[in-house]
Amino acid sequence: MSMNSFGHLFRVTTWGESHGPALGATVDGCPPGVAVDEAMLQHWLDKRKPGQNKFTTQRREPDAVRILSGVFEGQTTGTPIQLMIENTDQRSKDYSEIAEKFRPGHADITYWQKYGIRDYRGGGRSSARETAARVAAGGVARAALDALVPGIAITGYMVQIGPHKVDRDRFDAAQIEQNPFWTPDAVAATEWAEYLDGLRKSGNSVGAVVEVVAKGLPAGLGAPIYGKLDTDLAAAMMSINAVKGVEIGEGMAAAELTGEENADEIFMGNDGQPVYSSNHAGGILGGISTGQDVVVRFAVKPTSSILKTRQTITKSGDASEIITKGRHDPCVGIRAVPVGEAMMACVLLDHVLLHRGQIGGNRGAIG
Amino acid sequence: MSMNSFGHLFRVTTWGESHGPALGATVDGCPPGVAVDEAMLQHWLDKRKPGQNKFTTQRREPDAVRILSGVFEGQTTGTPIQLMIENTDQRSKDYSEIAEKFRPGHADITYWQKYGIRDYRGGGRSSARETAARVAAGGVARAALDALVPGIAITGYMVQIGPHKVDRDRFDAAQIEQNPFWTPDAVAATEWAEYLDGLRKSGNSVGAVVEVVAKGLPAGLGAPIYGKLDTDLAAAMMSINAVKGVEIGEGMAAAELTGEENADEIFMGNDGQPVYSSNHAGGILGGISTGQDVVVRFAVKPTSSILKTRQTITKSGDASEIITKGRHDPCVGIRAVPVGEAMMACVLLDHVLLHRGQIGGNRGAIG
Amino acid sequence: MSMNSFGHLFRVTTWGESHGPALGATVDGCPPGVAVDEAMLQHWLDKRKPGQNKFTTQRREPDAVRILSGVFEGQTTGTPIQLMIENTDQRSKDYSEIAEKFRPGHADITYWQKYGIRDYRGGGRSSARETAARVAAGGVARAALDALVPGIAITGYMVQIGPHKVDRDRFDAAQIEQNPFWTPDAVAATEWAEYLDGLRKSGNSVGAVVEVVAKGLPAGLGAPIYGKLDTDLAAAMMSINAVKGVEIGEGMAAAELTGEENADEIFMGNDGQPVYSSNHAGGILGGISTGQDVVVRFAVKPTSSILKTRQTITKSGDASEIITKGRHDPCVGIRAVPVGEAMMACVLLDHVLLHRGQIGGNRGAIG
Amino acid sequence: MSMNSFGHLFRVTTWGESHGPALGATVDGCPPGVAVDEAMLQHWLDKRKPGQNKFTTQRREPDAVRILSGVFEGQTTGTPIQLMIENTDQRSKDYSEIAEKFRPGHADITYWQKYGIRDYRGGGRSSARETAARVAAGGVARAALDALVPGIAITGYMVQIGPHKVDRDRFDAAQIEQNPFWTPDAVAATEWAEYLDGLRKSGNSVGAVVEVVAKGLPAGLGAPIYGKLDTDLAAAMMSINAVKGVEIGEGMAAAELTGEENADEIFMGNDGQPVYSSNHAGGILGGISTGQDVVVRFAVKPTSSILKTRQTITKSGDASEIITKGRHDPCVGIRAVPVGEAMMACVLLDHVLLHRGQIGGNRGAIG
């Protein structure tokens, strides 16, 4: 089946290589009558766009998205939406060495072992450039969610870079757009800048942790047992390049809690909806949303393209060593923030549509 | 689509509630000619079976699996394999209170909010009993893997319970079958027994971390971009009841590594296959297996059915409190070990079949 | 993927062999709150049940269906519904010869060539007995449709047996339940009885054409381009054993019409809904329902198990001949009538749920 | 799920409207290492291209296909192949009237009723132009089939136009490329030209029957019960615009045969493969290929855009009449021939990959 697609009713198929003529996303299953235009999608792509500061790759391209189908007179028609982004700044020469050698920690070797052929230019299909298509598709998902779930808000931000975590007591949402790391902790932003600058100058890179939160969701989203909301979110985030771990709510730390500590107590709110004393569950119980904030975190490993010499082998199996020159992110986790938001938007829209289809949306009131 | 199914070519659909007449798994896409019988599957079910020691629920049932279709004269025929386990020890009366009240931290409330009706007996569909069907299906997957990938070995074990982690220096695979926690650290096993006994007596529960490792895999398994091996493993593990986090290789700790530290250096082995200086990647690069051990960890939250009083509400929305009597696991993570193994087996078989179908299995040699 | 499943949101997986312990259907995606019980499903199974008259196989079994999951206190819960039918009258000895020889016109040889193993008893998985599971699942679909689309009516009947067609001028729906052929033409029923009796006595068999009509559908059902309502109906009917052709509306005869003749003219009805001057389209335009009757026909080939001597080969490739003794249908098309109704019900429910999920059901009014 | 996609392992998603900037196909699951280039695909598109003679629409465009991804240095890489065809000759003004009125027999009204919005220009998504994307994707499928099943040949041709059928005794494959109808009967070609010219001048249109045959297939392709080879072929052909009926082998005529007549007798061939005395089955038994020619026929209804006045209604529900001016096919069935071939190629490749994945391709020898 389609291994380059995700989603059930709202289904996104991304295509394209880093240095081919173009890449994009085929978006199927978007409801009709949603206001969508290129400017709206460009807003999200610009957020992800490389070359905006010294902490992201200096590759510079407009990443301009074109809508080729599925939108008529400013509204979606319910037919497939084709989103295309042309590759304009390719500099293939930068990548000649990796045609023969495999970068340690990179997908070079496994793509070769699986397919026996690969477009090695800039990582080809395994390049983080593929995530531009996700962000464009996420823009469509956001537009549809705004129409179907008024008041929903999806926000991503960095909570850790290397060993340095944010101080939750300094959490200030207003700061997120004010620094190159999309972090809510202004103090951390200053410290990280210095830390990352040193790494960058030394030709090294580092990992990060991104958190994405969705507010304003209704209860009841998620399809047990194998289409749980957290199952789909885990798959969506783990499918992002370089992600090695995914957490919902307490995440791995849930192991350290007792049942007494972990059980979010339930009360009735003034609006007749249940409220909870805490949110260890990250807004999901039994794979279904509770109506609380949905909280997801994922860890991004450090960029494997670095200026440090590493031992490797060639396609012929000969021992060699490699230094990856060219333009790279000292912390690819930074650009993963808008990608995580996009994946959250796609998964949530999908489950809104699934719930509407299978349940009808008019059941399960309390009281 | 089928939200109670997982897998692409090897597809498992589980069905059944905790206190219905039976539960089971419909297994579709198993290759023909694989030797399978009920005793073979029962071996894995017995490993998961409750009531084996004081650290798991005292509910006692044989969990005897019957093969109703798809196996003829001891071999799979390539047609659907129906695996049925009858529920024999139900004691519905134990569960009468939760018909009206929602257990904090449990799926009671979200199932109600989504469906407007639920089989509340023993948690119904959201009960951990559903995992018995996964273990049975995993037994079929193991049998097929043994036939297709001779020498493959899948082993799960506990590495943390509450705040107490194993000491990796004391790792001894031979210990895993020797203690009620399936832990490779004999010293930890002793300490955990005392710790957990105290929790059990106080009517409390605690979380845990389970690690599952697959050895002897070929390189090349995994289907980028959205059917990556790690994506499917993350979804499979996150779909297990009570799981809140999933890690591949370094997992969340990858955030703290530099590119230099994280890049597993590559050399040629004597057998003409690549070997690596380390396995930070957990055996997966770009979503495709490297041939190293595939290493997955997941965190299981504490059981929410506890003897501690918690604040909650009723179906009518009235404030109330609840103490869950009855037979419960102080650490449901223990029984999650064979479940994690089963999910690993199903995902790996699925990707072996996918690779054979889409690539043909004869490409990508190095040297 | 699951090759024994059909449907998108309402997904049915059938399992089981003719002479195994049982067969059944795993029904996933049924909305919650639908009144379903075993008696309701048994009604449809009894209609299909063999041995009711001399024109169907004399194999006699109750074909009693059991609901093992997904229904609680008489209502569906939104979780998988497991429907099991035990095989009670098996007489394996009747089928010993076909273990070695392939019946011409039967799936014996292709199952062997594909799988290299087959449960040859009674045709195993390729037996028409599999359709009992479809009829049970169709009963669930009918119950859900009645709840979601009040007034919908699905009726199947025979319009041709061998060379003998019904006279449309004698069409009387009241006759359908009055004869062993479920034909609306009482005169044909009498003629067919004599004709078929002769064939039966001579040990021969014959084909038939079945028509299934759905009345009372809303406009707008169907999901272009590849999930069209007619596409899914064609697949559903062609998947029934022995079906070799499927028609929508005019069907193959559409080739003979001019554009002027074929274009069903459109007018407004008194109820503010469009009405049409004719229904050449069979209620479907561009893969989407028009609100007219949906009309599907399919041809069933003659039973290949006959008492006539035919040339064949053995598993060893030796020339041989075969006469299939045992209990067989002179016209398997008769029992295909309730099966066609069941497939229609499943496809329609699926598209009602899809439309509700992707469109929301509140668009596209005319005037 | 993706309603604009078809196929299991080889999955094609088409996108685009008749008068948007472009349309195309996203092709996922093509094996790596297959030689593919634009010229190879253009060959098949040119065969379908309109405006080649007076019997097809005079709309003239190059229909030039561009490969945007998935092919590197002339070979497929196993990643998604994006095929784009730009729309160059659009003349939107020709289509202004149908913005308000619904053409009888056309999808205009149902798209409006389903989506509440439609790109009415040239039929938008429901235009036969969408089939250009299928033909491009079919070209990729043909290339992969040639590599995997050497000697396979897929040929489509017209066997009926209006009431006029070919004479099977005059069947001459060499004639197919020699006339504008792709018919194997030279005499029919002459008669049809005169007949169709008269229809064209009167502003009318007519239906047709297309037959597509695949030679050189192995036995064993097809995935019972719901992914049968004939099931998937029926769905593929019924999904083509204007198709109202699909037949395999004897098709609807199977109803008139006795079991004795229908049973293709089996013998052993000199090459150790089974041979058959006839092919009533159309090369498929129990949904699995026998190794004989796979024979599929489908009926195409007449074009609904005609110069004859028909009664209809407007979007406002007012009575009206319509004459569709502009450039149309007097027999759209002609251009359906290469489309039918393309669908056959896609379905067969898909089942070759499925068989390889689930069975491994090395079982089921006879003798």
From TrEMBL, chains A, B, C, D:
Look up the record and name the cofactor or cofactors this protein needs: FMNH2
Q: How is the cofactor bound?
A: Reduced FMN (FMNH(2)).
* SUPFAM superfamilies xrefs: Chorismate synthase, AroC
- The entry's FMN-binding residues are R125, S126, S127, N241, A242, G286, K301, P302, T303, S304, S305, R327
**Does the UniProt entry include the keyword Cell membrane?**
no
InterPro entries to which the protein is assigned, alphabetical: Chorismate_synth, Chorismate_synth_AroC_sf, Chorismate_synthase_CS
**What are the alphabetically sorted keywords of the record?**
Amino-acid biosynthesis, Aromatic amino acid biosynthesis, FAD, Flavoprotein, FMN, Lyase, NADP
Pathway, per UniProt?
Metabolic intermediate biosynthesis; chorismate biosynthesis; chorismate from D-erythrose 4-phosphate and phosphoenolpyruvate: step 7/7
Q: Which GO terms describe its biological process?
A: amino acid biosynthetic process; aromatic amino acid family biosynthetic process; chorismate biosynthetic process
Which reaction is the catalytic activity of this chain?
A: 5-O-(1-carboxyvinyl)-3-phosphoshikimate = chorismate + phosphate
Q: Which Gene3D superfamilies match?
A: Chorismate synthase AroC
Q: Which PROSITE patterns match?
A: CHORISMATE_SYNTHASE_1, CHORISMATE_SYNTHASE_3
GO CC annotation: cytosol
Which top-level group of life is the source organism from?
A: Bacteria
| Pfam families, A to Z | Chorismate_synt
Q: Name one GO molecular function term.
A: chorismate synthase activity
- Name the Enzyme Commission number(s) assigned to this protein: 4.2.3.5
Q: Which residues bind NADP(+)?
A: R48, K54
Summary of subunit composition and partner proteins: Homotetramer.
Function in brief: This reaction introduces a second double bond into the aromatic ring system.
Q: Which family does it belong to?
A: Belongs to the chorismate synthase family.
This chain belongs to the protein called: Chorismate synthase
